[in-house]
Every structure is written in structure tokens, then in C-alpha cells.
């Protein structure tokens, strides 16, 4: 695969055979030439789990200290009087029947969907539409709740959801290239801390097998995983 001159130039800053400390890795990323847009910063975490086993499915949420740098569109599915609470908390879209109908017709302009427990019997039929997109409300992700105000405010402030894929890897965004080095470090530490907290009791051997940091258009930078889990 042919790579552009900018990618090749950025790759020269990275030693593929080396794992970097968190601060050094972020500083290398910050030195790279970026695209004309504010690229996202992504982290891939390789875990020693077997996702096919239900008790080893690592899934959770974390409130990044500095957010993701992305405006999150939140849809709240609920009935009155919760709709007023959702709007006051800053939800972008609020309703129930009209949005269920729109989603069934293929519409979805929301980044996150939150629902109250009492409407899940209606929202449940959207599984085949929202499931493949990772948008189905779920209690474990904090998106099925009666505390609508708290959920919406956290999501708008930068709370992210993550889950391990079938290969045992978590892929998620932790900020933008315009963030300061310290902001990126703080966000990554918060994510790693939560991932470690969620370690399944049944997972044996090495849990945190590898971490790679990259920008949207940049090369991967391997991080020293051992240094990130030290007490």
C-alpha cells in the first residue's frame, strides 16, 4: 500500500521496534504533521480476554477529564415529564414514538441514544436497527437510566462508551490533536484506569497486552503498557 509523503514523514519519527512511555509517545504524536482538519487521537488496547465468553466481555464508560473534543448529539427516548428534564440537561433530540418510527425507516443522526427503563419495551424493537451501529441503549453503558439529567450532562461533557471487539481489542477516541500534551495524557490515564478496574475475574494471564496510540491519519505508536498500570 502506497503511503503519502506526510505519513511517511510522520513514520520516521516512530521506531516500530520500540515501546514508548506515555508522555514520550504523546509528544511524538504532537510533533507529527497533521491533516488540514483537527484529527482525532485514537487508542487501541489489546486485552488478554476471550470476548466469546460472556464473563469476559469488557464493556464500560468513562468520563474523560477533558472530553473528546467532539460535539456529541444526544437523543433521549422517554415520556413526559422526563422529556422536560432531558431538554433542560442539553439533549439535542427528545421524544419517543416519532423517533422510533424514524429509526425504523433508516434515520439516525444521533451519536448516543439514552432511554428511560419504562420505554425499553418499545425501544427493544429497534435492536436490529441500532445494534449493528452500537447505538442500542444499555444499562451497563449507562444509557438506560432514570437519571436522564446526569446521563445527558456527562455525555455532552465527554463521557465515552467502550467495548472489546471479537479480537479482544478496545478502539476508542481520547481527544483531538489540538489538545495539549497533558490533556491527552490525562484522558488516556482515565481510560486505562477504568479498563483495569473492569478486568474480568475469569481472565487469566496477562490482561493488558498492548496499547497503541495514533492520530486519524498517522502511524501507530506503541506504548509501554506496564508503566500505565503501576500503582
Shape: globular
| Strand segment tally | 9
**Beta strand %:** 15-25%
Contiguous uncertain segments of 5+ residues: none
Q: What is the level 1 CATH name of the largest domain?
A: Alpha Beta
Approximately how much helix is present in the residues? 25-40%
Q: How confident overall, as mean pLDDT? A: 91
Overall CATH architecture of the largest domain:
2-Layer Sandwich
- Under CATH, the topology of the largest domain can be stated as Ribulose 1,5 Bisphosphate Carboxylase/Oxygenase
Order of helices and strands: HHEEEHEHEHHHEEHEEH
Radius of gyration: 19 Å
Strand order of the largest sheet: 7-1-8-9
Largest sheet: 4 strands, antiparallel
Number of helices: 9
Q: Briefly note the structural class of the backbone.
A: alpha/beta
Let me know the CATH homologous superfamily of the largest domain.
Ribosomal protein L1/L10, rRNA-binding domain
Q: Care to describe what's here?
A:
There is one protein chain. The chain is an alpha/beta fold and 231 residues long. It folds into two domains: 15-67 and 159-228, 2-Layer Sandwich (Ribulose 1,5 Bisphosphate Carboxylase/Oxygenase), CATH 3.30.190; 74-157, Ribosomal protein L1/L10, domain II (Rossmann fold). Helix content is 31%, strand content 21%. It has a four-stranded antiparallel β-sheet with strand order 7-1-8-9, covered by helices on one side. α3 links the parallel β3 (74-77) and β4 (93-95). α3 runs parallel beside α7 (148-157). The chain is globular, with a radius of gyration of 19 Å. The mean pLDDT is 91.
